[in-house]
Write a structure and sequence with these properties.
With 95 residues, the chain is of the alpha+beta class. The chain has one domain: Conserved Hypothetical Protein Mth637, Chain: A (2-Layer Sandwich). 25% of the residues lie in helices and 34% in strands. A hairpin with a 3-residue loop joins strand 2 and strand 3.
């Protein structure tokens, strides 16, 4: 069985530049992407931004739910041991 970690994000499409950080509500991570929410472009950009911010491969990051809405459930397969700490750091990060 493959280990996985899930968490929620809120996407801000068409931002000036990509950024992962800050919280929306209590524990929802904000992910800003430059791509528009058209034809899955924002979803692909979200996966790429999270992969880079969390220091995991693109293949490890999956959108489990919320493909057509701003709030999404993300799953990271085979997460590194420090992933929870990294997400916590990003939740308090501000631009």
């Amino acid at each position: 069985m493959v280990a996985a970690m899930r968490f929620t994000i809120r996407v801000k499409p068409r931002s000036k530049r990509p950024f992962v950080g800050g919280s929306w509500g209590q524990d929802t991570l904000i992910v800003s992407v430059a791509a528009p929410a058209v034809d899955g472009k924002a979803n692909a950009a979200v996966v790429a931004a999270l992969s880079e911010a969390l220091n995991v491969t693109l293949r490890q990051v999956h959108i489990v739910a919320g493909h057509r809405v701003r709030i999404k459930l993300i799953e990271v397969l085979d997460p590194p041991a420090d992933l929870a700490a990294r997400i916590s750091e990003l939740l308090v990060a501000a631009r």
